[in-house]
Structure to design on (268 residues):
């Protein structure tokens, strides 16, 4: 990695902005582990969300040659422009939640130490572009990764689990302690890898209906499916899909939700 100018880092003053979830990774051990987990290759279509002070960016650029990045903070974007040449870094000063990832595809490899306050909406936004993605490596609050990788019947299993596991194979790679960041967050983090299921993805007839059923099933976790889903389907539809109307949403596998949504779709 040959910086075009001065590398942004702890030596250059930047007051972390809490509203942008700025906890900067400062431990070279974890920087190296994340970059190794991504294993960038020259020519990869890499996009980093929230490069910040470039902890990961340098290693990604060094291995891939060129990456794209999306950073919302104007001051950090200005620093990044002086630290990398346009040939190394295509920088979009933008909100990743609003960003149209279709303009960067296909075979996108997304990397991000994501701002925790927007992690769920950002994952949903990326999931909407799953056809364009090759993989995602994201650092999140450890509890969020537990929800993403949860099994049915557990407390962590919920809407986020079902919506993401319907599209991705998800693995927790390793935990990162608060002391690896400046400033240190109050919670532990974990790095997860998401690989789109693509050809193995269950066919969902109506994605909007599927999302509504999943949301309703977990809106009040203690309700039976008969009650929780009364606005979207009848007890007969549940039974016809092989699902006990007296069960709770948290006991259903992802495949059960897909089967139910596909059975209800033609009736609407
Ligand atoms: N990648 C850096 C690292 O590992 O040290 C910074 C991580 S920091 C947790 C999150 C970064 O995402 C910050 O640089 C922040 O400004 C940026 N960010 C926050 N909200 C964003 C958004 N909606 N779109 C794009 N970037 C955002």
């Amino acid at each position: 990695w040959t910086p075009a100018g001065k590398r942004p880092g702890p030596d250059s003053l930047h007051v972390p902005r809490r509203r942008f979830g700025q906890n900067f990774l400062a431990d070279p051990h974890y920087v190296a582990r994340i970059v190794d987990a991504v294993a960038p290759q020259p020519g990869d279509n890499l996009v980093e969300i929230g490069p910040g002070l470039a902890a990961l960016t340098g290693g990604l650029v060094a291995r891939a040659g060129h990456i794209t990045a999306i950073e919302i903070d104007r001051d950090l974007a200005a620093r990044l422009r002086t630290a990398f040449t346009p040939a190394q870094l295509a920088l979009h000063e933008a909100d990743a939640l609003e960003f149209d990832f279709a303009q960067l595809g296909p075979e996108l490899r997304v990397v991000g130490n994501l701002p925790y306050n927007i992690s769920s909406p950002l994952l949903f936004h990326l999931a909407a572009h799953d056809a364009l993605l090759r993989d995602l490596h994201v650092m999140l609050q450890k509890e969020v990764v537990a929800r993403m990788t949860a099994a049915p019947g557990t407390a962590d299993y919920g809407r986020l689990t079902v919506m993401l596991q319907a599209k991705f194979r998800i693995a927790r790679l390793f935990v990162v302690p608060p002391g690896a960041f400046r400033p240190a967050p109050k919670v532990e983090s974990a790095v997860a890898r998401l690989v789109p299921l693509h050809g193995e993805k269950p066919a969902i007839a109506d994605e909007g209906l599927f999302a509504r059923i999943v949301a309703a099933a977990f809106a009040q976790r203690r309700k039976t499916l008969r009650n929780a889903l009364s606005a979207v389907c009848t007890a007969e539809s549940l039974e016809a899909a092989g699902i006990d109307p007296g069960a709770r949403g948290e006991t259903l596998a992802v495949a059960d939700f897909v089967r139910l949504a596909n059975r209800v779709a033609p009736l609407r």
User: Anything to note?
Assistant: The longest strand covers residues 133-141.
